[in-house]
Design brief:
Helix 5 packs antiparallel against helix 15 and helix 6 (163-179) runs parallel beside helix 8. The strands form five sheets. Strands 21, 22, 23, 24, 25, 26, 27, 28, 29, 30, 31, 32 and 33 form a 13-stranded mixed β-sheet that branches. The protein has 29 helices and 33 strands. The chain is of the alpha/beta class and 932 residues long. It has four domains: 22-363, TIM Barrel, CATH 3.20.20.300; 381-419 and 429-569, Rossmann fold (3-Layer(aba) Sandwich), CATH 3.40.50.1700; 594-748, Aminopeptidase (3-Layer(aba) Sandwich); 759-908, Aminopeptidase (3-Layer(aba) Sandwich), CATH 3.40.630.30. Keywords: Glycoprotein, Glycosidase, Hydrolase.
């Protein structure tokens, strides 16, 4: 095969042969299917992508690859097929074989070893193994920089968040692959490390960084790998949105492929598109049109992973593009020359038709097995061990029981283990289901069961092992924690599986509250092990002993057990900037805080509210459930409201929101809500919003005091305390900002359900007769003077506004009054309202219960009344009767004193829905906390 600079061999005069070389296609099945055979024989496709769904073992893979090459040879292909797989190691391997293919650490695991030489050796060994099976291109290295590390699906598939470190390990891996004779493909250009996940399921993730920002960070590894001779580049299907750049799909954009990759970075190798079967692309553009766009953008090979229908559509679209002069044959020839140059580097017909297979693999294993062990042993990282719990012999007596708590997880979507899984878990039992073993890695609970067995084999005392799910800490878990001498909690990508965060913090709280038989507090030893992303608890101060393995393959966990039992000391270190002290100290960033603009920000706030409500600790109910953007907009002339946002100016996505109100009547400035997107917490967004809110409230004329929590709107009545371990964290956060949380006031909202079958407690109606009050229900502004005079006995902010709103809405609100019989003076009132009232708009729980609901709000009892609780129960009882008569199935009771005796209310059918701590302080003494 001779390739002149201006001409191609005569074999390529056939246009179909040329076009076929510009496609990489996949299929489903362990043997050559009629569809893929037809694509090779009739359409002359030049490249094949194999996935875990095609590969069962090294021997079967060798046979399958040989059959594919033989099919191409017999069909008259001038050059062999380019056949590639993902073999990133860690949890992402397309080919697995217990006997002949070794397991090695993930990219981040190798970075944790601190050895580029080891990364090179592992890459070379990996390439030798898959090359023996006939594979000639590897879809790697992964060159993404995790600039948005805590919200990333890539996880440990890349080396970390430092561009120079990612670059050096990526190039080491690339050179290892090349040494073994494989072609290399960098991914995922221009970067999957800073994606924002916005919009619907049919929208692609978006890069919001500008080209200047990308150039300084994310593009560094790609630029350096190109200089070192990278053979091919995969351009991702992500969108790009920043000033001067608006790209729907990067791989279809001439700005990205030709301008940025070809011209700016001077890449001369083969460009491969992301799979054009992705839903967002096929729905928005169509596969045929996408194929034409990809080629015109500069892609040399168009990837279609598995759908035969889509593959035919792509071929037809390409030919139609040629016929309609949308694509020139000269353009096709440019790509063909690049592809043939690449194939000449990594394959020949002699090599393709004679894969060494098992014979060579058998010779490689004696050296590859110890390499695997050495790499894993070097990667295990003890991030911190404050109380010196390691090795376990330091803290456990021989007969003590050790408790292992592991999550029910699915492996990374890119691995073979993502198939044949069931996520049906019994809600009332922590007993695990057993995931099936895949052809890639042992996944989920199976590998954790083996971890438990490995721990048990090393000691005399029993190892208790059970799983945990989104159902949280169950009584069975608490019983096991109480009897165990030490506890190990395993997490796997807790930042993407938030229930693991909540569960681990809850277990930590239980372990911190253990007592000896003599009543002395004795903290139970707790070890947290992150078996995927190291970011799970790297900055969590409450976790004293934290170990990272970077993947949960069997080999990784064998090394973990050795560390736990002291067979060797862990030598790994956290990769990238996370290991630097300034990162761990959580230095604060300064975010641009803007005024909330309803027209611009309402849709974004609705998205933020929904994601924040869904991100709450599983098993807990979010105060935001049922809220919408308008829930924060009072439009009351007696209340000055100003709200703030931190947002992405390009995508308009909101990262944080803060609502503030100034109640003129009482001189109270209120922070009524402050919440941040779950994926961006601990980045100082909340701190920036809080500072802006306080500075604004300080400028209000007549400001007397600040308050955390607001009666109106009734969303956050203060610091939420219903979420277990979150209470301590949030109280600490506000205390660090200057709030005296030690002087908080407990308030709550309550709910009574099943009103259809509800009846007052026996004897309660009779006891109310001794309360010395007459009760009635009134509607309308005609009763305002007396009612508003009465509630002045209580100076809580927002009460007057609630009552005014109710009095001005007689069709949906009323006031239940308690009067002294002798003079008719008011001694107690509550507001009664229904779901049609204006007030209900500011009580999200009213619409979140799931059935027709009524509300009782803001009870005020005169301080001179002796029978406070009896009078309160009387007002509420009459309200419940009214609500039941209206056909409601539930009753919300909001803004109640949380320190009160709830026995009477519990007897009436109420239970606590949300707890809060309302905090107030004198505005005159407020000191702004400077950023650190």
């Amino acid at each position: 095969m001779a390739l002149g600079s201006d001409s191609l061999d005569a074999a390529w005069q056939d246009a179909d042969r040329m076009l076929g070389q510009l496609f990489m296609m996949g299929f489903e099945g362990h043997t050559v299917t009629p569809q893929i055979r037809k694509l090779i024989q009739e359409h002359h496709i030049g490249s094949i992508l194999l996935t875990a769904k095609n590969l069962k073992s090294a021997e079967q893979t060798t046979q399958l690859v040989l059959e594919l090459q033989q099919c191409a040879h017999d069909a008259g292909h001038p050059v062999p097929l380019l056949i590639g797989i993902d073999q990133e190691n860690g949890g992402v391997n397309s080919l697995f074989d217990d006997i002949y293919i070794r397991q090695y650490p993930s990219a981040m695991g190798l970075a944790a070893t601190g050895s580029r030489e080891l990364a090179y050796e592992v890459a070379k060994a990996t390439a030798q193994e898959i090359s023996a099976c006939g594979i000639n291109i590897i879809l790697g290295p992964c060159l993404d920089v995790l600039t948005n590390a805590r919200n990333q699906p890539l996880g440990v598939r890349t080396s970390g968040d430092d561009p120079q470190e990612v670059s050096s390990y990526g190039i080491a891996s690339m050179n290892g692959y090349k040494e073994a004779g494989l072609a290399t493909m960098g991914k995922h250009f221009p970067s999957y490390g800073s994606l924002e996940f916005l919009g619907s399921a049919l929208d692609v993730p978006t890069i919001t960084e500008s080209l200047e920002q990308l150039s300084l960070n994310a593009l560094v590894p790609f630029r350096n790998a190109i200089k070192e001779g990278l053979d091919a580049m995969m351009v991702g299907g992500c969108a790009m949105s920043s000033v001067g750049l608006n790209v729907m799909h990067a791989c279809l954009s001439e700005q990205v492929v030709n301008d940025l990759l070809r011209n700016d970075l001077q890449f001369e190798g083969v460009v491969i598109s992301d799979c054009l079967e992705m839903e967002a692309l096929s729905h928005n553009i169509g596969v045929g049109g996408g194929t034409v766009m990809a080629v015109n953008a500069g892609c040399d090979i168009v990837l279609l992973c598995r759908s035969y229908v889509h593959q035919q559509e792509a071929l037809e679209g390409f030919k139609l593009g040629i016929d309609n002069f949308n694509i020139s044959l000269d353009r096709v020839k440019v790509s063909l020359k690049r592809i043939l140059t690449l194939k000449a580097k990594c394959t020949t017909w002699e090599k393709a038709l004679n894969p060494p297979g098992i014979e060579l693999l058998s010779k490689l294993q004696p050296s590859h097995t110890p390499l695997s062990t050495r790499a894993y042993n070097a990667s295990i990282t003890v991030v911190k061990d404050k109380n010196r719990l390691l090795p376990l012999s330091n803290i456990l007596e021989p007969d003590d029981e050790l408790l292992l708590l592991t999550p029910l997880v699915k492996p990374l979507a890119a691995s073979a283990a993502a198939r044949a899984l069931s996520d049906q878990v019994t809600s009332d039992s922590p007993e695990p289901h057993i995931w099936e073993r895949s052809s890639s890695v042992m996944s989920g609970e199976r590998v954790f069961r083996e971890l438990g067995r490995s721990l048990a084999r090393q000691r005399n005392g029993r190892v208790l092992h059970t799983s945990y799910t989104a159902n949280g800490v169950r009584p069975q878990h608490e019983n096991l924690i109480n009897r165990a001498g030490a506890v190990i909690v395993v997490t796997a990508d807790a930042n993407r599986n938030l229930y693991q965060h909540g569960f681990t913090r809850h277990v930590s709280m239980i372990c911190n509250m253990q007592y000896t038989s003599g009543g002395e507090k004795r903290e139970k030893p707790l070890i947290v092990v992150a078996v995927s992303s190291p970011y799970d608890f790297a900055m969590e101060q409450s976790i004293g002993t934290y170990v990272c393995t970077y993947d949960f393959t069997e080999t990784a966990l064998v090394s973990l057990v050795k560390v736990l039992y002291g067979e060797f000391s862990a030598a790994g270190s956290l990769p990238g900037t996370i290991s630097q002290s300034q990162k761990l100290s959580q230095s604060r960033q300064h975010w641009l805080v803007e005024n909330f603009n309803e027209e611009r920000d309402a849709a974004g706030l609705d998205v933020l509210i929904k994601s924040s409500a869904e991100g709450i600790t599983p098993g807990m109910h979010s105060e935001l459930s049922g809220a919408i953007s308008s829930s924060f907009t009072l439009r009351d002339p007696d209340i000055l409201e100003q709200h703030f946002v931190v947002r992405n100016s390009s995508t308009h996505a909101l990262y944080g929101f803060c609502a503030t109100y100034f109640f003129k009547a009482t001189g109270t400035g209120v922070i009524a809500a402050i919440f941040v997107d779950a994926g961006r917490r601990k980045l100082s967004i909340g701190h920036s919003l809080h500072n802006r809110a306080i500075r604004t409230l300080l400028q209000r004329e007549g400001i007397k005091r600040f308050q955390l929590g607001s009666r109106l709107p009734s969303i956050y009545l203060g610091i939420p305390t219903s979420h277990g371990g979150e209470r301590r964290r949030q109280r600490s956060w506000f205390a660090n900002l200057g709030w005296n949380t030690a002087l908080s006031r407990s308030v709550c909202s309550m709910i009574a359900r099943n009103l259809a079958t509800w009846s007052p407690p026996p004897g309660m109606a009779k006891s109310l007769q001794s309360a010395g009050a007459d009760f009635d229900l009134v509607y309308g502004a005609g009763y305002a003077d007396a009612v508003l005079d009465h509630i002045k006995t209580n100076n809580r902010q927002g009460l007057a506004e609630v009552y005014k709103m109710a009095l001005n809405d007689p069709s949906a609100c009323g006031i239940i009054r308690a009067k002294r019989p002798e003079d008719g003076a008011l001694v107690g009132t509550v507001v009664l309202y229904n779901v049609q009232s204006q007030l209900a708009e500011f009580v999200p729980a009213m619409k979140d219960v799931g059935e027709l609901t009524g509300g009782i709000s803001s009870p005020v009892i005169s301080p001179a009344v002796g029978e406070y609780s009896t009078l309160l129960q009387g007002l509420i009882l009459l309200g419940m009767r009214q609500i039941k008569q209206q056909g409601c199935g539930a009753c919300i009771l909001d803004y109640m004193d949380g320190d009160g005796n709830f026995d009477g209310l519990s007897a009436m059918g109420f239970s606590v829905l949300h707890n809060f701590e309302e905090v107030s302080c004198d505005a005159a003494t407020w000191t702004m906390v400077p950023p650190t």
